[in-house]
Amino acid sequence: MGEKLLEVKNLKKYFHTPKGLLHAVDDVSFSIEQGKTLGLVGESGCGKSTTGRVILRLLEATDGDIYYKGQKIRDLNSNEMRNLRKEIQIIFQDPFSSLDPRMTVSEIIEEPIRLHKLITNKNERFERVLELMELVGLSERLINTYPHELDGGRRQRIGIARALSLNTKFIVCDEPVSALDVSIQAQILNLMKELQAQLGLTYIFITHDLSVVNHFSDDIAVMYLGKIIEKASAEELFNNPIHPYTKALLSAIPRPTIDKKVKKIILKGEITSPINPECNCRFANRCNFTEEICKMKEPSLEEVISNHFVRCHLFKG
Amino acid sequence: MNNKVLEIENLRIQYVTDDGTVEAVNGINICIDKGKTLGLVGETGAGKTTTALSILRLIPHPPGKVVSGFIKLEGLNIMDLSEKEMEKIRGGEVSMIFQDPMTALNPVICVGDQIAEAIHIHQNVTQEQARQKAKEMLEMVGIPGARMEEYPHQFSGGMKQRVIIAIALSCSPKLLIADEPTTALDVTIQAQVLELMKELKEKFQMSMLMITHDLGVVAEVCDEVAIMYAGRIVEQGTLIEIFTNTKHPYTQGLFHSIPNIDDRKAKLIPIKGLMSDPYNLPKGCSFCNRCNYAMTICETQKPEKIEISDTHFVACHLYKDNLDFQLRQ
C-alpha cells in the first residue's frame, strides 16, 4: 500500500445565505495515496468544486480536518500555508478567465517561481520557463504571446505549466477539460497522465463527465448534495455500481456506439436545494426505490463490499 | 413524391471582417426528409451554428454574407422571401432551440406569456386561447401548468430548457433546429431532455437538425449524420454507416478522442495539432495538416465528394482510386 498523501476527515463547508444555511460540503471524508488520482464526480451544485477549494484553503472549512503528509493543514498560519502552496496547486476549469490577459505566457508561468523566490536569477528563471513550456508541449515561439492570442487547449497548457512551476506534488484539477473540444480534450488528458507518471503527481480530478473520470482515476467518489454517496475503485464503481443515483448517472451517459444500448434509468425531478436540508436521504425524492425509512432518517456511508462504500438504506454491509 | 423538408445546396457563407475574410461555410449540401433527424457534428468553429442560423436567415449582416447557394423549405426557396414572409417562418414552420437556456428566455416576462407570444403571433387565436395552449404546452414538457405565472429565474436549467422546447414546439414546426440543446445540462437532466425530444418528435412527425459535438448524443437521437470540419462536410451517411464504416480520418479521430467508458484501459488517441486558422485555410484539404494519412495531393487539391454508397459519401483523397481503402485501427 502506498502512503496517504492527503486525508480529509468530516469536512464541512456551510455558506450563510439570506434563506438559511447552505450545506455545500457536508461531512466528506476520503484519502488519496501518493501518485494516485481520486475522481470527484457529481452534477452541478453537488459541492465538488467547493471541496477542492476547501482542501487548498482557498475557502476556509466550517469544520473537519485536512491532513497533508500527516500535517493538519487547517492549523497552519499564513506563512506556513504559503510554504505549502509550493507543493499543492490547482488547475481551473476555464482557461479563458483564469489567466491574466495583460501578462505574456512567460510572465504567467514565471510568476509563481518569482513570488516564491524559488529561482532568483533571472536567466535561470527564464530557462525554467522554457523547460516547463517544453514539458507541457507549448512551442517556444509562443513565449511572448498573450493569452487572447491562443486557443483553449494551449491556454489550458499554460495553466498546467503554471501549476507545475513550483515543487508541485499534488494538484486539484477542477474540470480541466470541460471547456475544450473533444480532440483537444484528449490531448490534454494524455498530457496530464504522462506528467503524472513522469513527475509522480497526485491528483484530485473534479468533473461531471463520467467517461473522463473513468479513464483517468484510480478511485472515484460520487457526490450528491454535499455528501459522498458512493466510493470505490474506478473499476469496481463502473462494473458494480450500487447506489441508485450512481446507477442512473452511469446509464445516463450518451454512449457513442450503436450496438450496445444500455437501458436508461430516467430520474424524476431535479437536484433539491442544499439550503437547510432535511434529515433524510437527500436523494429520496428522485429515487425510484424510496422506502419509508429514506424519508425519515439519513443513511450512513457503509462498507457494503470490501473497499466499496455506499450511503443508502437499501444496502447495508 | 417530394418528401424533403429541408434542402440546402452549395451553401457558402463568409464573414468579412477588418482582419480578413472567414469562409465559415464552404459549399455544403444537406437534405432532411420528413420525420428524420440529421446530426451535424463538429468542433468549435466548424460552421455548424452558422449553417443553422442561415436556415432562419439570421446570419448577422454585416459581417456575415451568404455568397452562393440556396436553402429550400419544402421546396420553397427562402432566399427569395421578404423579411415579412421570413418572420412567419421563424418560430412557425422552423423553430430553433439554442444552446444556453440561461440566456434564451426573457427574464422579465413570465414563462406562460413567453410561450403564448409565439402562439399568438403565428396562429389565428385570441390571447385567451393562446394562453390556454401555452398551458397545455407547458404540461406536455412536464412542467405543472400552475407555474405559468413564474419567471425564468424561478426555474432550474433543465426546466428552462423545457420551457424553450415548449416555445419551439408551440406552433408545430415542420423543422426543429436544436443547437447543442443539452450541452449546458447535467447528464441526468440531459437524459430527461433527450427522451422528451425524441418523444415529441415522434408525436409531431417533425424533422430535426441536431447540432452537437457529442457523438454519444448523435448515437441516441439521429438517423443520419454529417461530420463538419472547417466549413465543409467531410463525411455524411446514415447513423450505422458513420459508426460502423467510418471513412474519413477526421471522423475516426473524433471517435478515438472519446474516452471509452466500457474499456478504461484504452488509450486516447488525440487528433494532433489544432484546427486551421479560418482566415487562412490550406489550399488543399483543410484537415491535411492534422491527418495521419496525408499525401502530397492533399496539400494542393481539395478533395471531391466520393460516394461509398447511395447514402454515404466522404470527401477524402484516400478513396479516390480505391473505394475499399481501410483506415488503420
TrEMBL record, chain A:
InterPro entries per record: AAA+_ATPase (IPR003593), ABC_transp_ATP-bind (IPR050319), ABC_transporter-like_ATP-bd (IPR003439), Oligopep_ABC_C (IPR013563), P-loop_NTPase (IPR027417)
GO molecular function: ATP binding; ATP hydrolysis activity
Organism annotation: Marinisporobacter balticus
Keyword ATP-binding among record annotations: yes
Entry keyword annotation includes Nucleotide-binding: yes
Protein name: Peptide/nickel transport system ATP-binding protein
Family (UniProt): Belongs to the ABC transporter superfamily.
SUPFAM superfamilies: P-loop containing nucleoside triphosphate hydrolases
Sequence ranges assigned to domain ABC transporter in this UniProt record: 6-250
Positions of transmembrane segments: none
Pfam families, per database record: ABC_tran, oligo_HPY
Biological process according to GO: peptide transport; transmembrane transport
Keywords: ATP-binding, Nucleotide-binding, Transport
TrEMBL record, chain B:
InterPro entries reported for this sequence: AAA+_ATPase, ABC_Ni/Peptide_Import, ABC_transporter-like_ATP-bd, ABC_transporter-like_CS, Oligopep_ABC_C, P-loop_NTPase
ABC transporter domain sequence ranges: 6-255
GO BP field: peptide transport
UniProt GO cellular component terms: plasma membrane
Entry keyword set: ATP-binding, Cell inner membrane, Cell membrane, Membrane, Nucleotide-binding, Translocase, Transport
Major location category of this protein: membrane
Gene3D superfamilies in UniProt: P-loop containing nucleotide triphosphate hydrolases
SMART domains: AAA
Membrane among keywords: yes
GO MF: ATP binding; ATP hydrolysis activity
Membrane topology: Peripheral membrane protein
Location in the cell: Cell membrane
Family statement drawn from the similarity comment of this UniProt entry: Belongs to the ABC transporter superfamily.
Protein's recorded name: Peptide/nickel transport system ATP-binding protein
